[in-house]
Amino acid sequence: MSAVHNARMKITLKLFATLTDYLPHEARRANQIDIEVDPDASVQQIIDPYGMPPKLVHLVLVNGKYLSPEERLSAHLQPGDVLAIWPPIAGG
């Protein structure tokens, strides 16, 4: 296997509101963490290992652009992208 297949890229993962509990303890105050991901991973494949209940993964933004649940299955990130996830916001 060539080194190209093992290349990882760095992105920023931001989790908001109750989702910050899914970040490593040291990252919770800042509500974000820089992570290395496989460039071939879909947005959903990046989200899945964090174990967030799907019903809490409500609003997913990449660099401020909304991704629908269907787009998350096929969308890929670029180095330096910011993946932000919000739970449903209660209120009215």
Outline the fold blueprint:
Elements: H1 3-6, E1 9-15, E2 32-37, H2 43-47, E3 59-62, E4 65-67, H3 69-74, E5 82-86
Parallel strand pairs: 1-5
Antiparallel strand pairs: 1-2, 3-4, 3-5
Describe this structure in words.
With 92 residues, the chain is α+β, with helices and mostly antiparallel strands. It has one domain (3-86): Ubiquitin-like (UB roll) (Roll). The protein has three helices and five strands; from the N terminus they run αββαββαβ. The protein has helices at 3-6, 43-47, 69-74, and strands spanning 9-15, 32-37, 59-62, 65-67, 82-86. A five-stranded mixed beta sheet has the order 2-1-5-3-4. A hairpin with a 2-residue loop joins β3 and β4 (65-67). The termini are far apart.
Strand content: 25-35%
The named CATH superfamily: Beta-grasp domain
Quickly name the level 1 CATH class: Alpha Beta
In CATH, the topology is named: Ubiquitin-like (UB roll)
pLDDT < 50 stretches: none
Helix and strand content put the structural class at alpha+beta
Which word captures the global form?
globular
Mean pLDDT across residues: 92
Question: What is the H/E string?
Answer: HEEHEEHE
Number of strand elements: 5
Strand order of the largest sheet: 2-1-5-3-4
Count of separate DSSP helical elements: 3
CATH architecture: Roll
Brief overview:
By secondary structure, the protein is of the alpha+beta class. The chain contains 3 helices and 5 strands, in the order H-E-E-H-E-E-H-E.
Task: Output the keywords.
92 residues, alpha+beta, Ubiquitin-like (UB roll), 5 strands
